Write the structure tokens for this entry.
Amino acid sequence: MSAYSTAYQALTRGRPLRPAEAAQLLAALRRETGEELADAVERDLSGTCRRGPQDTDAEFRRRRRDFGAAMRVVNAVRNAAAATAPLPHQRNRSTS
């Protein structure tokens, strides 16, 4: 089951989620959304950055350079979506 459908079911059934469960669900949703976005952009780029029949070598080199730069951004989006967020510093220690 996808993270989106799990979140939707949790919201519509009225069952409260524990904080750890909600954090895991949001992380999975972020990961799925990032992957879907990166895949869609990659599909779009692969169609627009191909060599055309009328392209000169310089135009093709420019397209290939632009494709490489765009793919670096797509891979950065994938890495950011898959990264786990660090836990915040816990400042709730007892001072007594």
